[in-house]
Specification:
The chain is of the alpha+beta class and 136 residues long. It has one domain: Cytidine Deaminase, domain 2 (3-Layer(aba) Sandwich), CATH 3.40.140.10. The protein has four helices and five strands. The radius of gyration is 14 Å and the shape is globular. The structure holds tetrahydrodeoxyuridine.
Length: 136
Amino acid sequence: MGRRALLLVTERDPLIAAATRARDNAYAPYSRFRVGAALRGEDGSIHAGCNVENASFGMTICAERAAIVRAVADGCRRFSALALVLDGDGTPCGACRQMLHEFAPTLPITIARPDGTVVRETTLDRLLPEPFSTFE
Ligand code: THU
């Protein structure tokens, strides 16, 4: 294995671990579907979020958007990777794809199961080929 691949794994695994820890804190009493997300800032910082549901179901915030608002509040707006941890083969919902696009149009995304198994490696531009944007 080359040096670059090793580096990628060492950057990816702590991100998956942070997303898994956030997933443990998910508040999902209605769907019982817990999701954790962790963004890596270009400065190496990690910002995690989980889904937070509400009795008024439409108020629910997804893990990815929770991670974005946390990162921005922490002063981080430039991202190099996202790890998403959930059961099954899910991908970020459309609303989260659009919100991620605002800050990182080509964001590399790793999707993993709670046991750490990586099920997909993709990028945001593959998941959202025609984003809405008001900037070039
Ligand atoms: N959910 C996320 O957190 N991220 C997604 O990309 C899709 C769905 C959450 C919202 C809700 O709490 C639960 O998963 C079931 O839809």
